[in-house]
Amino acid sequence: MHTSFATTTRGLRRDSPPMRLFEKAKRLGIWNPSAIDLSRDAADWRRLSEPERDLLLRLTALFQAGEEAVTLDLLPLVQVVAREGRVEEELFLTTFLFEEAKHTDFFARFLDEVAATDHDLSRYHTPSFRALIYEALPAAMGRLAEDASPLAQAEAALTYNMIVEGVLAETGYHAYFTMLEANDLLPGTRAGIRLLKQDESRHIAYGVYLLSRLIAADDGLWAPIEARMSDLLLHAMGVIDEAFQCYEVMPFNLQMETFSTYALAQFQKRLERLESARGKSLAEIERVTARVIAEDDG
Ligand code: MN
Ligand code: FE2
Fold it and tell me: What dotted CATH number matches 14-23+36-295?
């Protein structure tokens, strides 16, 4: 039963971080994966060497399964937010799930129209990737159906937003985009990745906000959050390591440091933000978050 509605009592809080993200999502997140021209990409693909194709297919097999997993696994968090009556957050989360669906759609087009695969790509899913995407992510998100405690919410957000999006996806897309640009390859794919990166930066910003408000409300959450994040960070770095181990000579002369340095720097920056939320008021958290959202390019 509803006893009142935010919009007919206090009104929407337009200045709140989730409403600022919702505004950005309505502006930047409405691109259509089907409208991206992949014809030159398909021609580029045919000219690549076998190891080059293998590396691009390997990365896409991780991106594709990762996007499908985040699409499948987000809903329990949306339900928790809805039950708590956080309408501004739910408005934003409607764009979040739509965007993950479009990312899944986008990579599926790549596999069909550029790489023309038979879709049997699970051989590229190495042990660390499986530990995160096949196991840790659905476990942390699925648990919310029975346990909506602040700790369970924090573990869901840190797994989904800090590790899967904030380390794996963001690093993968950054390095992939940089590599394609340096080699002037796959222009349609690059255009899609550029848009997708902007979407991801809003998703991560929401996760950092959610974790910050949970930490600010209960300092006892900090220790388990920090411990769980270091565990999962090892798996995330393992994904990078395992991908590089598969090649004697790295196609495109890709350097492992391009991935690992970026991943660790982004993770460290957000970890510091989370730590600085300890003992803060919600108003302070919202002020800091609003500044980060204004500065972010997505
Ligand atoms: Mn995504
Ligand atoms: Fe995302």
Answer: 1.10.620.20
